[in-house]
Amino acid sequence: MKSAIYLASIALCALVQPVLAQTTAPDQTSPLDTLVPANDATDAAAPPPSTGNPLEDRFNALDARIKQLEARNAQLEAAAAQTQSRVESAEVRAAKGVQMATAPTFSNVNDNFTFKPRGMLQVDYAAYNERRGGYAYSSGTDIRRGRFGFEGTAYKKFKWRLDAEYLKGKVNLLDAYVSYVINPKLSVTAGQHKAPYGLEANTSDAYNTFLERSLGSNAFGAVGAERRIGLSLAYNTDKLNAQVGVFGGAETVTRNASTRDEPYSFNGRVTWDPILDTGRVLHLGASGYHVSHLPGHAVTISDRPNSRVDGGLLVSVAVPGTAPAVGPTGVKSGNYYGFEAAGVYGPISVQGEYGHLALDRYTTASVATSSTLNFSGFNVFGSFFLTGESRSFKNGVVDRLKPFNNFEPSSGHWGAFELAARYDQLDLDDNSIAATPALGGRKAHSYISALNWYLNPNFRAAFNYIRFTGTRSPLTASGAVGTAKGDVFATRLQVDF
After folding, report:
1. How far from the centroid of its chain's Cα atoms is residue 225's Cα?
2. pTM check: above 0.85
3. Contact, 228 vs 248, CB < 8 A?
Protein backbone atom coordinates (compact mmCIF):
# COMPACT_ATOMS: atom_id res chain seq x y z
CA MET A 1 0.00 0.00 0.00
CA LYS A 2 2.77 2.46 0.93
CA SER A 3 4.54 1.59 -2.31
CA ALA A 4 1.40 2.47 -4.29
CA ILE A 5 1.07 5.84 -2.57
CA TYR A 6 4.71 6.59 -3.19
CA LEU A 7 4.44 5.73 -6.89
CA ALA A 8 1.32 7.92 -7.27
CA SER A 9 3.10 10.86 -5.63
CA ILE A 10 6.02 10.52 -8.02
CA ALA A 11 3.63 10.48 -11.02
CA LEU A 12 1.77 13.61 -9.85
CA CYS A 13 5.02 15.48 -9.35
CA ALA A 14 6.05 14.55 -12.87
CA LEU A 15 2.79 15.99 -14.27
CA VAL A 16 3.02 19.33 -12.49
CA GLN A 17 6.76 19.78 -12.96
CA PRO A 18 6.44 21.85 -16.22
CA VAL A 19 3.97 24.25 -14.61
CA LEU A 20 6.14 24.71 -11.51
CA ALA A 21 9.35 25.10 -13.46
CA GLN A 22 9.47 28.84 -12.74
CA THR A 23 9.47 28.22 -8.98
CA THR A 24 12.55 26.03 -9.23
CA ALA A 25 14.15 27.82 -12.18
CA PRO A 26 13.39 31.57 -12.03
CA ASP A 27 15.40 32.25 -15.13
CA GLN A 28 12.92 30.30 -17.27
CA THR A 29 9.61 31.75 -18.67
CA SER A 30 6.31 29.90 -18.48
CA PRO A 31 4.07 29.82 -21.58
CA LEU A 32 1.22 31.15 -19.43
CA ASP A 33 3.30 34.20 -18.53
CA THR A 34 3.89 34.81 -22.25
CA LEU A 35 0.19 34.65 -23.11
CA VAL A 36 -0.99 36.56 -20.05
CA PRO A 37 1.66 39.14 -19.09
CA ALA A 38 1.81 40.13 -15.47
CA ASN A 39 0.67 43.75 -15.13
CA ASP A 40 -1.04 43.64 -11.81
CA ALA A 41 0.12 43.25 -8.23
CA THR A 42 -1.69 39.92 -8.07
CA ASP A 43 0.53 38.44 -10.81
CA ALA A 44 3.66 39.66 -9.05
CA ALA A 45 2.72 38.14 -5.67
CA ALA A 46 5.52 36.22 -3.89
CA PRO A 47 5.27 32.39 -3.73
CA PRO A 48 4.18 30.84 -0.40
CA PRO A 49 6.95 30.18 2.17
CA SER A 50 8.67 26.80 2.18
CA THR A 51 7.39 24.11 4.51
CA GLY A 52 10.48 21.89 4.22
CA ASN A 53 8.48 19.24 2.42
CA PRO A 54 9.28 19.40 -1.33
CA LEU A 55 6.00 17.78 -2.37
CA GLU A 56 3.84 20.08 -0.20
CA ASP A 57 5.81 23.12 -1.36
CA ARG A 58 5.12 22.23 -4.96
CA PHE A 59 1.38 21.80 -4.31
CA ASN A 60 1.27 25.22 -2.54
CA ALA A 61 3.07 26.85 -5.46
CA LEU A 62 0.59 25.31 -7.90
CA ASP A 63 -2.37 26.57 -5.85
CA ALA A 64 -0.88 30.08 -5.72
CA ARG A 65 -0.38 30.12 -9.46
CA ILE A 66 -3.95 29.02 -10.08
CA LYS A 67 -5.22 31.88 -7.93
CA GLN A 68 -3.04 34.31 -9.89
CA LEU A 69 -4.53 33.06 -13.16
CA GLU A 70 -8.11 33.34 -11.80
CA ALA A 71 -7.48 36.95 -10.76
CA ARG A 72 -6.01 37.77 -14.15
CA ASN A 73 -8.93 36.14 -15.91
CA ALA A 74 -11.35 38.30 -13.88
CA GLN A 75 -9.43 41.40 -15.00
CA LEU A 76 -9.67 40.39 -18.63
CA GLU A 77 -13.41 39.69 -18.35
CA ALA A 78 -13.96 43.12 -16.77
CA ALA A 79 -11.99 44.80 -19.56
CA ALA A 80 -13.97 42.90 -22.20
CA ALA A 81 -17.27 43.90 -20.58
CA GLN A 82 -16.19 47.54 -20.53
CA THR A 83 -15.27 47.38 -24.20
CA GLN A 84 -18.65 45.80 -25.04
CA SER A 85 -20.43 48.52 -23.07
CA ARG A 86 -18.61 51.19 -25.05
CA VAL A 87 -19.54 49.50 -28.32
CA GLU A 88 -23.18 49.26 -27.29
CA SER A 89 -23.16 52.92 -26.19
CA ALA A 90 -21.76 53.92 -29.57
CA GLU A 91 -24.44 51.84 -31.32
CA VAL A 92 -27.19 53.46 -29.24
CA ARG A 93 -25.76 56.91 -29.92
CA ALA A 94 -25.72 56.19 -33.65
CA ALA A 95 -29.24 54.76 -33.58
CA LYS A 96 -30.62 57.77 -31.73
CA GLY A 97 -28.86 60.18 -34.03
CA VAL A 98 -31.24 59.39 -36.91
CA GLN A 99 -34.30 57.19 -36.50
CA MET A 100 -35.83 56.30 -39.84
CA ALA A 101 -39.58 55.89 -40.31
CA THR A 102 -41.92 57.50 -42.85
CA ALA A 103 -39.90 60.63 -42.09
CA PRO A 104 -36.52 60.67 -40.28
CA THR A 105 -36.27 61.92 -36.71
CA PHE A 106 -32.94 63.46 -35.71
CA SER A 107 -32.04 63.51 -32.02
CA ASN A 108 -29.16 63.48 -29.61
CA VAL A 109 -28.47 60.53 -27.33
CA ASN A 110 -30.33 62.04 -24.37
CA ASP A 111 -33.33 63.13 -26.45
CA ASN A 112 -32.84 66.68 -25.22
CA PHE A 113 -33.27 67.86 -28.81
CA THR A 114 -35.25 66.31 -31.67
CA PHE A 115 -35.97 67.48 -35.19
CA LYS A 116 -38.45 65.95 -37.62
CA PRO A 117 -39.85 67.03 -41.01
CA ARG A 118 -43.60 66.73 -41.51
CA GLY A 119 -45.94 67.24 -44.43
CA MET A 120 -49.13 66.37 -46.26
CA LEU A 121 -50.28 66.40 -49.86
CA GLN A 122 -53.92 66.05 -50.94
CA VAL A 123 -54.78 66.00 -54.66
CA ASP A 124 -58.50 66.13 -55.55
CA TYR A 125 -60.61 65.55 -58.62
CA ALA A 126 -64.31 66.53 -58.70
CA ALA A 127 -66.99 66.24 -61.37
CA TYR A 128 -70.14 68.35 -60.82
CA ASN A 129 -73.67 67.73 -62.05
CA GLU A 130 -76.11 70.66 -62.00
CA ARG A 131 -79.69 69.60 -61.24
CA ARG A 132 -81.27 72.98 -60.51
CA GLY A 133 -80.22 76.62 -60.43
CA GLY A 134 -78.41 77.01 -63.73
CA TYR A 135 -74.94 77.53 -62.22
CA ALA A 136 -72.02 76.58 -64.47
CA TYR A 137 -69.78 74.35 -62.34
CA SER A 138 -66.08 73.86 -62.98
CA SER A 139 -65.06 70.21 -62.85
CA GLY A 140 -61.39 69.32 -62.66
CA THR A 141 -58.41 68.78 -60.38
CA ASP A 142 -57.07 70.73 -57.45
CA ILE A 143 -54.24 70.55 -54.94
CA ARG A 144 -56.46 70.69 -51.89
CA ARG A 145 -53.59 71.01 -49.44
CA GLY A 146 -49.84 70.99 -49.72
CA ARG A 147 -48.12 71.29 -46.35
CA PHE A 148 -44.51 71.05 -45.31
CA GLY A 149 -42.77 71.96 -42.11
CA PHE A 150 -40.81 70.81 -39.11
CA GLU A 151 -41.44 69.95 -35.48
CA GLY A 152 -39.27 68.96 -32.57
CA THR A 153 -38.36 69.26 -28.92
CA ALA A 154 -35.74 71.28 -27.07
CA TYR A 155 -34.40 70.84 -23.55
CA LYS A 156 -36.98 68.02 -23.14
CA LYS A 157 -39.69 70.38 -21.86
CA PHE A 158 -40.20 72.50 -24.98
CA LYS A 159 -42.05 71.42 -28.12
CA TRP A 160 -42.27 73.45 -31.31
CA ARG A 161 -43.78 73.32 -34.80
CA LEU A 162 -43.42 75.42 -37.94
CA ASP A 163 -45.56 74.64 -41.01
CA ALA A 164 -46.41 76.33 -44.28
CA GLU A 165 -49.38 75.49 -46.51
CA TYR A 166 -49.89 75.78 -50.26
CA LEU A 167 -53.57 76.45 -50.95
CA LYS A 168 -55.22 77.76 -54.11
CA GLY A 169 -51.98 79.12 -55.54
CA LYS A 170 -50.88 80.86 -52.33
CA VAL A 171 -48.50 79.93 -49.54
CA ASN A 172 -49.46 80.87 -45.99
CA LEU A 173 -48.12 80.23 -42.53
CA LEU A 174 -50.07 77.42 -40.89
CA ASP A 175 -48.62 76.45 -37.49
CA ALA A 176 -45.96 78.48 -35.73
CA TYR A 177 -45.89 77.82 -32.00
CA VAL A 178 -43.90 76.72 -28.97
CA SER A 179 -45.30 74.57 -26.15
CA TYR A 180 -43.89 74.10 -22.66
CA VAL A 181 -44.69 70.88 -20.82
CA ILE A 182 -45.30 71.88 -17.22
CA ASN A 183 -45.93 68.27 -16.17
CA PRO A 184 -47.14 65.10 -17.95
CA LYS A 185 -50.74 66.38 -17.84
CA LEU A 186 -50.39 70.16 -18.21
CA SER A 187 -48.86 72.23 -21.02
CA VAL A 188 -48.99 75.80 -22.29
CA THR A 189 -48.76 76.83 -25.96
CA ALA A 190 -47.97 80.23 -27.47
CA GLY A 191 -48.07 81.22 -31.14
CA GLN A 192 -50.31 80.40 -34.07
CA HIS A 193 -52.12 77.11 -33.46
CA LYS A 194 -55.58 75.57 -33.55
CA ALA A 195 -58.05 77.22 -31.22
CA PRO A 196 -60.06 74.67 -29.23
CA TYR A 197 -63.26 74.12 -31.22
CA GLY A 198 -65.17 70.98 -32.17
CA LEU A 199 -64.17 67.40 -32.96
CA GLU A 200 -63.72 67.66 -36.73
CA ALA A 201 -61.93 71.01 -36.49
CA ASN A 202 -59.39 69.86 -33.89
CA THR A 203 -58.79 66.49 -35.59
CA SER A 204 -56.06 66.51 -38.23
CA ASP A 205 -57.33 67.09 -41.77
CA ALA A 206 -55.56 63.84 -42.70
CA TYR A 207 -57.66 61.76 -40.26
CA ASN A 208 -61.23 62.98 -40.86
CA THR A 209 -63.52 60.46 -42.55
CA PHE A 210 -64.89 62.67 -45.36
CA LEU A 211 -63.08 64.87 -47.86
CA GLU A 212 -64.32 68.03 -46.18
CA ARG A 213 -65.49 68.92 -42.71
CA SER A 214 -69.19 69.56 -42.18
CA LEU A 215 -70.88 72.76 -43.31
CA GLY A 216 -71.36 74.09 -39.79
CA SER A 217 -67.82 73.26 -38.68
CA ASN A 218 -66.37 75.30 -41.54
CA ALA A 219 -68.84 78.20 -41.44
CA PHE A 220 -68.81 78.82 -37.68
CA GLY A 221 -65.11 78.06 -37.25
CA ALA A 222 -64.19 80.86 -39.65
CA VAL A 223 -65.84 83.42 -37.35
CA GLY A 224 -63.96 82.74 -34.12
CA ALA A 225 -61.84 79.57 -34.28
CA GLU A 226 -59.50 77.74 -36.69
CA ARG A 227 -55.78 78.61 -36.44
CA ARG A 228 -55.13 81.89 -34.67
CA ILE A 229 -52.33 83.60 -32.81
CA GLY A 230 -52.82 83.11 -29.10
CA LEU A 231 -51.97 81.55 -25.77
CA SER A 232 -53.64 78.37 -24.53
CA LEU A 233 -53.47 75.99 -21.58
CA ALA A 234 -54.13 72.28 -22.10
CA TYR A 235 -54.87 69.47 -19.62
CA ASN A 236 -54.55 65.99 -21.11
CA THR A 237 -55.05 62.55 -19.62
CA ASP A 238 -56.09 59.28 -21.22
CA LYS A 239 -59.81 60.03 -20.91
CA LEU A 240 -60.22 63.68 -19.87
CA ASN A 241 -58.90 66.48 -22.06
CA ALA A 242 -59.47 70.21 -21.76
CA GLN A 243 -58.05 73.32 -23.41
CA VAL A 244 -58.73 77.02 -22.93
CA GLY A 245 -57.09 80.01 -24.54
CA VAL A 246 -57.21 83.61 -25.64
CA PHE A 247 -56.59 84.33 -29.32
CA GLY A 248 -56.21 87.23 -31.69
CA GLY A 249 -56.49 87.04 -35.46
CA ALA A 250 -54.87 84.62 -37.88
CA GLU A 251 -51.51 85.30 -39.55
CA THR A 252 -53.24 87.78 -41.87
CA VAL A 253 -54.56 90.42 -39.48
CA THR A 254 -57.22 92.61 -41.06
CA ARG A 255 -57.31 96.21 -39.89
CA ASN A 256 -59.21 99.11 -41.42
CA ALA A 257 -60.51 102.57 -40.59
CA SER A 258 -63.55 101.25 -38.74
CA THR A 259 -61.68 98.55 -36.77
CA ARG A 260 -58.11 99.47 -36.07
CA ASP A 261 -57.39 96.54 -33.76
CA GLU A 262 -57.46 92.86 -34.59
CA PRO A 263 -60.30 90.67 -33.32
CA TYR A 264 -59.88 88.59 -30.18
CA SER A 265 -61.63 85.54 -28.83
CA PHE A 266 -61.83 83.31 -25.78
CA ASN A 267 -62.05 79.65 -26.72
CA GLY A 268 -62.51 76.46 -24.74
CA ARG A 269 -63.14 72.76 -25.28
CA VAL A 270 -63.48 69.78 -22.95
CA THR A 271 -63.84 66.11 -23.88
CA TRP A 272 -64.41 62.95 -21.88
CA ASP A 273 -63.94 59.40 -23.12
CA PRO A 274 -65.48 57.15 -20.42
CA ILE A 275 -64.77 54.15 -22.66
CA LEU A 276 -61.42 54.18 -24.42
CA ASP A 277 -60.29 50.71 -25.42
CA THR A 278 -59.16 49.05 -28.62
CA GLY A 279 -62.30 48.67 -30.70
CA ARG A 280 -64.56 50.25 -28.05
CA VAL A 281 -64.85 54.04 -27.61
CA LEU A 282 -67.42 56.42 -26.19
CA HIS A 283 -66.50 60.06 -26.74
CA LEU A 284 -68.36 63.13 -25.43
CA GLY A 285 -67.39 66.77 -25.69
CA ALA A 286 -68.41 70.43 -25.68
CA SER A 287 -66.77 73.60 -26.93
CA GLY A 288 -67.46 77.31 -27.22
CA TYR A 289 -66.01 80.71 -27.97
CA HIS A 290 -66.69 84.41 -27.57
CA VAL A 291 -65.31 86.64 -30.32
CA SER A 292 -65.32 90.42 -30.38
CA HIS A 293 -63.91 93.42 -32.26
CA LEU A 294 -64.58 91.83 -35.64
CA PRO A 295 -63.01 93.67 -38.60
CA GLY A 296 -65.41 96.36 -39.82
CA HIS A 297 -68.07 94.95 -37.47
CA ALA A 298 -68.99 92.71 -40.40
CA VAL A 299 -69.36 88.93 -40.60
CA THR A 300 -69.83 86.60 -43.56
CA ILE A 301 -70.91 83.03 -42.84
CA SER A 302 -70.64 80.68 -45.80
CA ASP A 303 -69.46 77.33 -47.13
CA ARG A 304 -69.16 75.33 -50.34
CA PRO A 305 -71.06 72.08 -51.10
CA ASN A 306 -68.57 69.78 -49.28
CA SER A 307 -66.11 70.17 -52.17
CA ARG A 308 -63.45 72.79 -52.97
CA VAL A 309 -62.60 72.22 -56.64
CA ASP A 310 -65.29 74.67 -57.74
CA GLY A 311 -65.22 77.89 -55.76
CA GLY A 312 -68.97 78.54 -55.70
CA LEU A 313 -70.67 78.97 -52.33
CA LEU A 314 -73.66 76.78 -51.56
CA VAL A 315 -74.92 79.13 -48.86
CA SER A 316 -73.79 82.53 -47.60
CA VAL A 317 -75.03 85.26 -45.25
CA ALA A 318 -73.21 88.59 -45.03
CA VAL A 319 -73.96 90.86 -42.08
CA PRO A 320 -72.52 94.29 -43.00
CA GLY A 321 -71.17 96.81 -40.56
CA THR A 322 -69.86 100.37 -40.50
CA ALA A 323 -68.48 102.82 -37.96
CA PRO A 324 -70.17 106.18 -38.58
CA ALA A 325 -69.53 109.16 -36.36
CA VAL A 326 -72.80 108.60 -34.51
CA GLY A 327 -71.89 105.02 -33.62
CA PRO A 328 -71.06 101.67 -35.21
CA THR A 329 -73.51 99.35 -36.90
CA GLY A 330 -73.20 95.66 -37.60
CA VAL A 331 -71.89 92.88 -35.38
CA LYS A 332 -70.74 93.68 -31.88
CA SER A 333 -69.65 90.14 -30.90
CA GLY A 334 -70.32 86.48 -31.52
CA ASN A 335 -70.96 83.57 -29.15
CA TYR A 336 -70.71 79.94 -30.16
CA TYR A 337 -71.42 76.69 -28.33
CA GLY A 338 -71.29 73.18 -29.67
CA PHE A 339 -71.60 69.56 -28.63
CA GLU A 340 -69.95 66.45 -30.02
CA ALA A 341 -70.29 62.70 -29.54
CA ALA A 342 -68.84 59.56 -31.09
CA GLY A 343 -68.99 55.85 -30.48
CA VAL A 344 -66.93 52.93 -31.75
CA TYR A 345 -67.82 49.27 -31.46
CA GLY A 346 -65.46 47.11 -33.44
CA PRO A 347 -65.62 48.07 -37.14
CA ILE A 348 -68.78 50.18 -36.60
CA SER A 349 -68.55 53.87 -35.72
CA VAL A 350 -71.01 56.75 -35.34
CA GLN A 351 -70.27 60.44 -34.85
CA GLY A 352 -72.15 63.72 -34.73
CA GLU A 353 -71.80 67.42 -33.89
CA TYR A 354 -74.17 70.31 -33.26
CA GLY A 355 -73.24 73.98 -33.22
CA HIS A 356 -75.05 77.26 -32.54
CA LEU A 357 -73.74 80.74 -33.31
CA ALA A 358 -75.34 83.94 -32.00
CA LEU A 359 -74.25 87.31 -33.41
CA ASP A 360 -74.98 90.29 -31.20
CA ARG A 361 -75.55 93.44 -33.25
CA TYR A 362 -75.38 97.06 -32.29
CA THR A 363 -78.87 98.42 -31.63
CA THR A 364 -79.88 100.98 -34.24
CA ALA A 365 -83.15 102.26 -35.66
CA SER A 366 -83.27 99.35 -38.14
CA VAL A 367 -82.53 96.60 -35.61
CA ALA A 368 -84.09 98.01 -32.48
CA THR A 369 -86.45 95.06 -31.98
CA SER A 370 -83.87 92.31 -32.28
CA SER A 371 -80.15 92.76 -31.92
CA THR A 372 -79.17 89.06 -32.05
CA LEU A 373 -78.97 86.71 -35.03
CA ASN A 374 -79.06 82.95 -34.39
CA PHE A 375 -77.68 80.29 -36.73
CA SER A 376 -77.18 76.55 -36.29
CA GLY A 377 -75.80 73.47 -37.96
CA PHE A 378 -75.40 69.78 -37.31
CA ASN A 379 -74.17 66.59 -38.91
CA VAL A 380 -74.33 62.89 -38.12
CA PHE A 381 -72.60 59.98 -39.80
CA GLY A 382 -71.83 56.30 -39.51
CA SER A 383 -68.98 54.20 -40.88
CA PHE A 384 -68.11 50.53 -41.22
CA PHE A 385 -64.73 48.89 -41.94
CA LEU A 386 -65.12 46.02 -44.37
CA THR A 387 -61.72 44.70 -43.31
CA GLY A 388 -62.45 44.78 -39.56
CA GLU A 389 -60.37 47.76 -38.35
CA SER A 390 -61.67 50.24 -35.77
CA ARG A 391 -61.44 54.02 -35.52
CA SER A 392 -59.39 55.17 -32.53
CA PHE A 393 -59.24 58.33 -30.42
CA LYS A 394 -56.31 59.97 -28.64
CA ASN A 395 -56.23 63.18 -26.58
CA GLY A 396 -59.84 63.94 -27.44
CA VAL A 397 -59.50 63.72 -31.25
CA VAL A 398 -59.50 61.01 -33.92
CA ASP A 399 -56.17 59.22 -34.29
CA ARG A 400 -54.41 57.76 -37.33
CA LEU A 401 -55.95 54.60 -38.84
CA LYS A 402 -53.53 51.66 -39.06
CA PRO A 403 -54.68 48.80 -41.34
CA PHE A 404 -54.35 45.25 -40.11
CA ASN A 405 -52.42 44.52 -43.30
CA ASN A 406 -50.72 47.13 -45.45
CA PHE A 407 -51.17 47.13 -49.21
CA GLU A 408 -49.08 44.25 -50.59
CA PRO A 409 -50.85 42.45 -53.46
CA SER A 410 -48.12 39.83 -53.80
CA SER A 411 -49.00 38.69 -50.27
CA GLY A 412 -52.74 38.95 -50.82
CA HIS A 413 -53.06 42.11 -48.71
CA TRP A 414 -54.95 45.17 -49.96
CA GLY A 415 -55.04 47.51 -46.96
CA ALA A 416 -58.22 48.67 -45.16
CA PHE A 417 -61.58 49.63 -46.67
CA GLU A 418 -64.18 51.85 -44.98
CA LEU A 419 -67.74 52.69 -46.01
CA ALA A 420 -69.38 55.83 -44.55
CA ALA A 421 -72.50 57.96 -44.94
CA ARG A 422 -73.27 61.45 -43.55
CA TYR A 423 -76.15 63.89 -43.37
CA ASP A 424 -75.05 67.53 -43.04
CA GLN A 425 -77.18 70.65 -42.48
CA LEU A 426 -76.52 74.37 -42.05
CA ASP A 427 -79.35 76.75 -41.14
CA LEU A 428 -78.55 80.42 -41.67
CA ASP A 429 -82.18 81.56 -41.49
CA ASP A 430 -83.34 83.71 -38.59
CA ASN A 431 -86.82 84.99 -37.82
CA SER A 432 -85.54 88.47 -37.20
CA ILE A 433 -84.04 88.72 -40.68
CA ALA A 434 -86.52 86.64 -42.66
CA ALA A 435 -88.07 89.80 -44.08
CA THR A 436 -84.69 91.02 -45.29
CA PRO A 437 -83.94 89.36 -48.66
CA ALA A 438 -80.24 90.08 -48.32
CA LEU A 439 -80.03 87.99 -45.13
CA GLY A 440 -83.00 85.68 -44.66
CA GLY A 441 -83.95 82.23 -45.87
CA ARG A 442 -80.47 80.75 -46.28
CA LYS A 443 -80.30 76.99 -45.69
CA ALA A 444 -78.22 74.11 -47.02
CA HIS A 445 -78.00 70.37 -46.58
CA SER A 446 -76.19 67.46 -48.18
CA TYR A 447 -76.09 63.67 -48.23
CA ILE A 448 -72.67 62.10 -48.60
CA SER A 449 -71.58 58.50 -49.15
CA ALA A 450 -67.90 57.64 -48.96
CA LEU A 451 -65.42 54.86 -49.64
CA ASN A 452 -61.99 55.19 -48.03
CA TRP A 453 -59.10 52.95 -49.02
CA TYR A 454 -56.20 53.02 -46.54
CA LEU A 455 -53.24 51.44 -48.33
CA ASN A 456 -51.15 51.88 -45.19
CA PRO A 457 -51.11 54.38 -42.30
CA ASN A 458 -49.71 57.15 -44.54
CA PHE A 459 -51.35 56.60 -47.95
CA ARG A 460 -55.06 56.92 -48.59
CA ALA A 461 -57.46 57.09 -51.53
CA ALA A 462 -60.97 58.48 -50.90
CA PHE A 463 -64.15 58.61 -52.96
CA ASN A 464 -67.19 60.78 -52.06
CA TYR A 465 -70.57 61.12 -53.71
CA ILE A 466 -72.31 64.34 -52.55
CA ARG A 467 -75.92 65.33 -53.22
CA PHE A 468 -76.55 68.89 -52.08
CA THR A 469 -79.32 71.48 -51.90
CA GLY A 470 -79.18 75.17 -51.01
CA THR A 471 -82.05 77.64 -50.67
CA ARG A 472 -81.43 81.30 -51.56
CA SER A 473 -78.10 79.96 -52.76
CA PRO A 474 -75.40 81.83 -54.71
CA LEU A 475 -75.16 78.69 -56.88
CA THR A 476 -77.78 79.94 -59.31
CA ALA A 477 -77.58 81.33 -62.82
CA SER A 478 -76.03 84.80 -62.94
CA GLY A 479 -76.06 84.96 -59.13
CA ALA A 480 -79.85 85.13 -58.98
CA VAL A 481 -81.37 84.24 -55.61
CA GLY A 482 -83.00 80.81 -55.79
CA THR A 483 -82.66 77.13 -54.99
CA ALA A 484 -79.59 75.22 -56.18
CA LYS A 485 -79.29 71.46 -56.39
CA GLY A 486 -76.48 69.31 -57.68
CA ASP A 487 -74.21 66.30 -57.34
CA VAL A 488 -70.47 65.94 -56.86
CA PHE A 489 -68.34 62.91 -57.64
CA ALA A 490 -65.10 63.60 -55.79
CA THR A 491 -61.87 61.66 -55.25
CA ARG A 492 -58.66 62.31 -53.34
CA LEU A 493 -55.16 60.87 -53.20
CA GLN A 494 -53.43 61.66 -49.92
CA VAL A 495 -50.01 61.12 -48.40
CA ASP A 496 -48.93 62.49 -45.04
CA PHE A 497 -45.99 62.00 -42.72
Report:
1. 19
2. no
3. yes
